[in-house]
Design a protein that fits this description.
Largest sheet: 3 strands, antiparallel
Number of helices: 1
Number of domains: 1
CATH class: Mainly Beta
Order of helices and strands: EEEEEH
Distance between the termini: 15 Å
Number of strands: 5
Strand order of the largest sheet: 3-4-5
Length: 61
């Protein structure tokens, strides 16, 4: 799970395994495998970094 911020400032946690793809249009849009799209403040590279850190943490446990 990774923490991200909606455009209104609300923070929430998203399941990193559910991310299908991320695009910047110019806002960052996370598309989930369920078809849902979430617009967040974080940049694409920051989300990728968070996902990698999360996966490393899971794999090392």
């Amino acid at each position: 799970m990774i923490s991200v911020t909606k455009l209104n400032g609300d923070e929430f946690v998203i399941n990193a395994d559910m991310i299908e793809f991320i695009e910047e249009t110019p806002d960052t849009v996370i598309s989930l495998i369920s078809g849902k799209k979430v617009v967040v403040k974080e940049k694409k590279d920051d989300i990728i970094r968070k996902v990698i850190e999360y996966k490393r943490k899971i794999m090392s446990s």
